[in-house]
Give the backbone structure.
Amino acid sequence: MHCLDRSHDPGFKAKAFVRALDVVRAMPPDELAQRAMAGTLTDLDGIGDSSAKVIQQALAGGDVPYLAELEGKTQVPITDAGAVYRQAIKADLHLHSRWSDGGATIESMARTAIGLGHEYMVLTDHSPRLTVAHGLSAERLAEQVADVARLNEQLAPFRILTGIEVDILEDGTLDHGDDVLSQLDVVVASVHSKLRMPEQEMTGRMVRAVASPHVDILGHCTGRMIGKREPSTFDPDYVFAACAQFHTAVEINCRPERLDPPRPLLQMAVEYGCYFAINSDAHATGQLEWQPKGCDRAAEVGVPIERILNTWTADALLRWVAGT
Ligand SMILES: [Zn+2]
Ligand SMILES: [Zn+2]
């Protein structure tokens, strides 16, 4: 499943395998083992011959050729120049959990991040306006913050910093008040609605959000979906000048369908002396492996490594956030 996430594989076999995994996860381990021994796995809805074979191999404890093949085929490629950036990265600063529209628990995301060599991560589920994504109300956010404190005790020295991906509303205000945002370690702010508003209005909307003392990172600034949705239009001179002025980092979003900002805009942001964050925006554990895509782009455009927030330690990041 992790491998299928990172490969973004929409293939039929992948879907069938994911469906089979759902069935397996819902079943008590004893029953699963019994069925594997008796050869009755395929009696279950959603488990075909090839999935049954993979399950039997996995339960037998040996190598599973299908999984080994997936492991090899789904590795996210990276250029030599991009690898220099990837090696410098200590964290992911934009990712989602089941609390909003992610597919994995906070703990699974954290354990995967640890496996990738990260020292910390910022948990940024959605804010309430994004109802389709089960955005977090102030109450649920407070519960989540308490949950994160408990997890941090278990996972130390790894750290989960609290955060949110807060919606930038149409007038440039934010989808949570000062009282809520000031409680969080790091705030990513993103436009998710009315992406087609006229350029001048969009510019004002974004500049207002960027200038907020609570906002630390501007998420996927154009909102484009490659092949599906054009980038929104705004005056990048104003927006990036504001990012530099108000110490709001420009996100390099690594989702394959976003890769936002496009290169020419990224180049402009570099010229304005902005800070940056290379973020997976992961909604599943495997997607945490997408950072190489952003690293490659950063290398191509020549983003100064020392201006990338996720190459800093958590303490350095928190000091920077406190100073803005
Ligand atoms: Zn977003
Ligand atoms: Zn997001």
Remarks:
- Residues 138-155 form the longest helix (18 residues).
- Strands lie at 91-92, 120-122, 159-161, 163-167, 186-190, 217-218, 249-253, 276-279.
- Residues 80-322 form a domain with the TIM Barrel fold (CATH 3.20.20.140).
